[in-house]
Amino acid sequence: MDEIKLYSPKVMKEILDKYGFKFSKSLGQNFLIDGNIVNKIAEVAELDENSGVLEIGPGFGTLTQLLCKKASKVVAVEVDESLREVHKGTLNYPNLKILYRDFLKVDVNKLIEDEFNGMDVKIVANLPYYITTPIIMKILEEKYKISKIVVMVQKEVAQRLNAKVGTKEYGAITLAVQYRSDTNIAMTVPNTVFMPRPKVDSAVIAFDILEKPRIEVLDENMLFAVIKSSFSQRRKTIINGLSNNLKLSKELINEALVSAAIDPGIRGEKLTLEEFGRISDEIIKRIK
Question: Which of 6, 66, 254, 277 is deepest in the core (most CB within 10 A)?
């Protein structure tokens, strides 16, 4: 069993043909066929006998196979039921549980509580491009008891997640990530190491989850409403973006910005997380 190299293109093709599996474009299926990349992802995740891994979208199981060898327990969530028979023939690990469900509909806090008693839980995944942002936002907003996230995503998305203030990549998702974690792009991955080959390159990005949010605010919901409003129309000034999207008067927004020491004519892309925090708190003081 352990001798089967699932990342081998030859092995993968033989097994998928055997089960009559067809790749789904709508599910963004691109399976890894490079053992070095698989090893690097596991290395970045820093797994040991105390680790519990939640894998999103195991696909063919190339990464799953190594995760099972490195971690104490792996729970994988796979949306494609047609992979069930493939998995039965290739992933017979006693420390693996596969749930055939849509990750976006899973109660992950309950899953972690039920499956990973006392373990250091990490999320590790090769995420489908088409659903990367909803998955990452779900993970960050639902505040799981996890220490680390290591995911492969489209290179352009990784750059947005890890962007610096003032750059064209910097946006609302950058700030959502900054609020809860430290990020690092561990490696870029060429499109040649996938079957089928996608049109763009990928990157492996690691999130080290902070014990508490990076800044303290009076109202977290208002913080993210302010951030989203500021980036919904990037060319608008902060005062116009906030008054249009928050449905508050320009007078109130102007007052809040001045009190937060923010120029009302600046654009959101020029503001740091701390500055958004100050704006959020000043608005809350005026509407409560």
Answer: 277
The domain of 63 spans 9-209
The reported pTM is 0.91
Q: Is residue 38 part of a domain?
A: yes
Instruction: State CA 20 to chain mean position distance.
Output: 31
Domain annotation covers residue 59: yes
Contact in structure between 151 and 175 (CB atoms under 8 Å)? no
Asked if residue 73 and residue 24 are part of one domain, the reply reads yes
Summary count for the chain: helices (H), strands (E): 12, 9
> What confidence tens digit (pLDDT) does each residue in 1-11 have?
456 899 999 99
- For residue 232, give the CATH number of its domain: 1.10.8.100
> How many other C-beta atoms lie within 10 A of the C-beta of residue 60?
26
Tens digits of residue pLDDT in 215-256: 999 999 999 999 999 998 888 899 999 999 999 999 999 999
Instruction: Give me the DSSP letters along 99-148.
Output: E-S-GGGS-HHHHHHHH-TT-EEEEEEE--GGGHHHHHHHHHHTT-S-SE
